[in-house]
Amino acid sequence: MGSRHTLGRLAEESWNRFDDYDALYYEGRWHRSHELAGRARRAAGGITGLGVRPGDRVVVMMATCPEVPIVYQALWAAGAVVTPVVFLIGPEELAHILRDSEPAAIVTSPELLATVQATGTTLPVVVVGEAPPGTVPYASLEEADERPLADVAEDDLAALMYTGGTTGRAKGVMLTHSGLWHTSLAARRASEIPGLTRAIVPVPLSHAYGLIVTLVGMHSAEPPQSVLMRWFEPKEFLRLAAEQRAQIGTVVPAMLQMLLGEPLEETPLPELRYLTCGAAPLARDVLTEFERRVPGVTILEGYGLTETSAVTTFNPPDRRKIGSVGLPLPGYTVTIRDDSGEALPEDELGEICVRADSLMTGYWNGPDLTREALVDGELRTGDIGCVDEDGYLYVVDRKKDLIIRGGFNVFPRDVEDTLVRHPEVVLAGVVGRPDPRLGEEVVAYVQLRPGATVTPEELIDWARDRVGRVKYPRELHIVDKVPVTSVLKLDRKALRAREPGKE
Question: Which range is the signal sequence, renumbered to this chain (predicted)?
Fold first, then answer.
């Protein structure tokens, strides 16, 4: 029947804990918990019928919909390894993931089938929706008999999550059943507020943040309810949150910035109490402005990486520190180290390093990359930050994004946070470009609100007055859209590609 701390058993226990109830809302209707459980159990039988065996990887490439968590739970019940792929990638990167992970099958949807087929794959392709000849209709999987839980061990792989596509070739992060089980339980204990059970979820379930959100709900002491969004759109988020009386929600910083461009005061959200925010650093001014305009809502920041099973620190609801990303979850230790690996005292900036039993076991087919990232069992995150006297972590920027201008360190986030404080700015991205005299120069890309009239020169002056003469951008470009990744993180790789001499 499988070990105690495996995700197939976690799903079964969560289904059996409560009577049948409205569990998941999507595009106009609520899905009942027993309906979802039955579908997942039958799909597990159908997946096994395809020839998928315990330990096999199965790529899941879909926009958010009810079938995503159903397929995840079915794969875990069958002992397979969930391999989520963000739905916005192209054929070339998907082909790399297929070559690297060597999956037994692919699950996708009709609008993404052309991308899958463009890779030339000969694998079984399961299509959720209308399935053309040569593919497997997902509905046929749910016609199978339910199957018992596969016998898997706690330290077996549960997920192979590809990350790093914005910095180079995507790497497969190996996460175990036990690691994801313990991290999701710790995250639930750190974030759960009794009585607040209805969550709006606009983050992609194909991302580590979205995956852990689905697992956190399985540990809930009260029947959890999720309002799923296929993808984030600010007006629809506000409409759904109001209509479905969302009490909590999961967001990333760019979503909050986009929401600030909406008439928030015209959409009352009387039941919304907390928004958890992660995946990228949040500007303090964005947090305070959102809370000012949406009274009664508290934003709780957290921090994590795919390599740490998605969550590392979180702000306790009753002991939040604005500007920090909170305290380490139980079982996690955060140490700040200098370039030589020595631990630094409180309030000193250095590389954030994490130790926990829930860390990845390594990168798939990447022993050299694993040795670089895991040093004596501790993850070198590549992020720069510090820890205060109370143990709260503050994240400054990515180590690789640091700009060294004339010998001075410039953290792009400092400049970006200053630019988005301008009332006509929606998003800002800052990168360095080679400079023969100074080594690197600071370059900014800015997306403006509709009807904005501010000029690049005025924004440069705005930044110079606030960040000083070393850090302010000497070049500033106004663009239609600042590029972001599929989870709405700033895509600095795309910005660097616009600069001559940089990848």
Answer: none
Query: In this structure, what token pair is assigned to residue 296?
Result: 């009664």
**Assigned token pair, 385:** 């930050």
**What DSSP state is assigned to residue 302?**
E
Q: How many H helices and E strands in the chain?
A: 15, 27
* 416 phi and psi angles, rounded to 5 deg: -60, -45
- pLDDT digit string (tens) for 328-369? 999 999 999 998 999 999 999 999 999 999 999 999 999 999
Three-state DSSP state, 388: coil
Q: Which helix (H) or strand (E) holds 218?
A: helix 208-218
Residue 490 carries which DSSP code?
B
Determine how β-strand 57-61 pairs with β-strand 136-137.
unpaired
Alpha-carbon distance 425 to 419, whole Å? 7
Instruction: Sketch out the chain's domains with CATH numbers.
Output: 7-178 (3.40.50.12780), 402-496 (3.30.300.30)
Which residues contact residue 266 at a Cβ distance below 8 angstroms, ignoring those fewer than 6 apart? none
Distance CA 53, CA 104 (A): 8
- Give 192-225 pLDDT, tens digit per residue: 888 999 999 999 898 888 899 999 999 999 999 9
**pTM score, whole prediction:** 0.85
DSSP H or E stretch at residue 415 = helix 412-419
Of 233, 211, 259, the closest CA to residue 81 belongs to 211
User: pLDDT of 260-289, one tens digit each?
Assistant: 989 998 888 989 999 999 877 788 888 999
